[in-house]
Design a protein that fits this description.
This protein is mainly α and 115 residues long. It has 5 helices and no strands. Helix 2 packs antiparallel against helix 5 (92-114).
């Protein structure tokens, strides 16, 4: 099962031309750096019950995941964003655990693109 919709990355090929491979590699490496930080922010804001920070982190993760073509990860982040917007952060621990699994799966497949 493919975790990454590679068409989401291919849209940059026409824009970047010959610089596509280097651009995609940089984009993926940046995602590898920022996504764990956003997941940590989700956990910290859940602990402190800071719904504003929770929503911002979930929204950023959703957007970044969509850029990478990681639809399942984006969908989970979207669910968390909506929960934060509703002010209901109960039962999000399981969702955050699933988020970590989905990120690991996306990372594994993205590594195959840049290797």
């Amino acid at each position: 099962m493919l975790v990454i919709n590679r068409d989401s990355l291919e849209v940059y090929r026409e824009i970047m031309g010959e610089g596509y491979d280097a651009f995609i590699k940089d984009l993926i490496i940046t995602f590898f750096d920022t996504a764990p930080k956003l997941i940590s922010e989700l956990m910290l804001s859940l602990e402190s019950r800071d719904t504003g920070a929770f929503v911002r982190a979930a929204h950023s993760l959703k957007s970044n995941s969509l850029t990478m073509g990681a639809q399942s990860l984006a969908d989970k982040a979207s669910v968390l964003e909506e929960r934060g917007r509703s002010g209901d952060l109960s039962a999000t621990n399981d969702e955050l655990s699933q988020l970590n699994v989905l990120f690991a799966e996306a990372k594994g497949e993205l590594l195959t693109i840049i290797d």
